[in-house]
Amino acid sequence: MSIVNICVQLLYGTAGKEIVTRPCAQLGSSHSDSLDVSQEKIVIINRYGEKLVGVLHEAGSKDLVVLCHGFRSSKESRTLLSLADALTSENISIFRFDFSGNGESEGTFEYGNYYKEVDDLRDVILHFKKHKHDTHAIVGHSKGGNVVILYASMYHDISKVINLSGRFKLERGIGDRFGNDYMERINQHGFIDVEDKTGRIIYRVTKENLMDRLKTDMHSACLSIDPKCRVLTVHGANDDIVPSEDALEFDKYISNHELHIIERADHRYASHQLELAAIVLKFIKSR
Question: Alpha-carbon distance 204 to 155, whole Å?
């Protein structure tokens, strides 16, 4: 039986702080009757002046786990919500947010943009540090997995990094999305417009965007991670978007690394959410 709490949303913007109360259902779990979990909507201004929108799940811990979504996804992805439930049920506070240009956050969506998203993550972590929440772990799914690895290669202030289905070889997968003649087309026109099934343009890829992806070096990033930082990579054996062999590359080059391949799991862990959550939870709680 779930308990309904009154949650407070805190919106930090240039105009100050707005407080809104609303009802929210407490998580259903073995701890749900004794655990008081609140959800607060937080807006953080990044270094570019854009509002990043996220949800803080307060479960009693001062240490925080930050969850990062994948390509053209959001903080509302099923994978992140499932992890949020699992972690908060174990008294672990989490923050899930939209990168700039995605979901509710401000900014323009851009293909590539890996280091801009690292900047967003950095600004989120620094925000919570000012508000007495130290980030204990960062978790990224798909492209978010690349972002958390890149973050760990640049900043050595996180003890645990979790890469879910991240891509090691960023030169792969482009032809599958845009066609194998993508380089010829982008050299000819300067851009590629990506359309949905109705013919509506959903985003544009410029040559600069494409080169941003191609120049992002995951091999060097892996070698630059502090050996004291523990890294977990989880990948689905049946991932049809990012091949599971990419996970083996992360395992090869990250010195303090743990690898889990989930049999029969796809890119989004559609039928393996509980197994994924158990692996992540065990890693985060381990010493």
Answer: 31
User: What's the token pair of residue 258?
Assistant: 């743990």
Is 211:191 a contact under the CB 8 Å cutoff? no
The label of the residue with tokens 């502090």 reads 226
Helical residues (DSSP H) of the chain, grouped into ranges: 78-88, 114-130, 143-154, 174-178, 182-189, 207-214, 218-223, 245-253, 273-285
Q: Which residues contact 2 (CB under 8 A, 6 or more apart)?
A: 25, 26, 27, 28, 32
Residue positions counted in the chain: 287
Is 233 in contact with 250 (CB distance < 8 Å)? Answer: yes
pLDDT in tens, 143-155: 999 999 999 999 9
Which one, of 126, 107, 121, lies nearest residue 69 by Cα?
Answer: 121
pLDDT band at 52 (very low <50, low <70, confident <90, very high): very high
pTM of the full predicted structure?
0.88
Residue whose token pair is 């991932």:
239
Structure tokens at 90: 């174990």
Encoded amino acid at 96, one letter: R
Please say whether the structural domain 58-170+216-285 has been given the CATH code 3.40.50.1820: yes
Q: How far apart are CA 199 and CA 189, in angstroms?
A: 19
**Position of tokens 């204990």?**
136
- 91 alpha carbon, distance to own chain's centre: 20
Q: What residues does each domain of the chain span?
A: 58-170+216-285
Q: Which two tokens stand for residue 187?
A: 């050299």
Q: What are the C-alpha distances in Å from 172 to residues 195, 227, 261?
A: 21, 28, 20
